[in-house]
UniProtKB/TrEMBL annotation:
Gene3D superfamilies: Hypothetical Protein Pfu-838710-001. It comes from Mycolicibacterium poriferae. This is CYTH domain-containing protein. The active site is at Y35. InterPro entries: CYTH-like_dom_sf, CYTH_domain, NeuTTM/CthTTM-like. It comes from the Bacteria. Residues 6-172 form the CYTH domain.
Amino acid sequence: MSDFGDFEFERKFLVLDMPAVAASDPSPVLIAQAYLFAADGYAVRVRLQGPAPAGLDASPAELLTTLGDDAIGTMTAKGPAAGGTRYEAERELDALVAGQIVSRAAHVVLKVRSSVWLGEDGWIIDRFLAGNAPLMMAEVERDGPVVDLTIPSFCTTEVSEDDRFRNEYLAEHPFGTWAEAYRRELDTAGPRFVGSLGRNQFESS
């Protein structure tokens, strides 16, 4: 248990092409999550997750039915993020209850998550489905502030401080509806990386 308690320390990056290293995870998981409340950086999330099925072309409702006996349910309260730090208190929730809540939610985020170790850091790579396709993001978490980070070559730009890439925003505003506008924005502004968290090192491609 970290001395920081219910605080999480993470950095997020946009990924344009699924990195080959993601295939090294033998057990990717399917995540379905809904937000009961989201405003001003605060959010309450219900999540159901389980082993990812082989086929991912089914409808969101059909994908939910694949989360069977091995599914895990959680409820999480989140606070606003600042400097790569966010309050996050997660508690276990009965998977049946979590599934019923998610299946009744108006806006659900679906994604497949792969986990890999790169150097001394554990990374997760999320491939979003349904309305948020073709979004992919990579995320690294630590027990304390994520400083002096070696950033993998598959990370195109950092979105840690861009609220549009928070899942509660994506639940209401699917990436598919603004992907082209964002790509034009990225082409104009170029990649950006947070410079206030120590020294960024960039892995060569």
